[in-house]
Amino acid sequence: MMGIQNMISGNKFILLSQRPMGERLETASLNTLLGLLIVFTVLILITLLIYMFRIIPYLQGRKSGNQEKDNSPVDTVINQIEEKEDMELVTDDSELIAVITAAICAATGEEVPSDGLVVRSIRKVNRRG
Fold it and tell me: Which of 12, 23, 26, 129 is the most exposed place for a label (fewest CB within 10 A)?
């Protein structure tokens, strides 16, 4: 061991520990276990935090459920407005269907067949290149 120390100190290296190899390995393994314990503890805490993101809206919905009973006239008006918006979205879809049908007829140069058209997919064509 002294020969190694003389060789190392001659090359300007400093041996930090004079303890036996078994103690150094024990310290290193304890440091490794402590590091693993910290990492997995943090991972478990992150998992619990992500799980709480699912529970918080449920708790807020339950709390706001009590408030909704007090504001029932306002809620009925809001529900009516939402129903009107849903109906407008349906008409927007029918307009989109009409535009697609017209584009297909213009591209093929034919009338719509009596059995109708079947659209399997719609893809946007990128013509910038």
Answer: 129
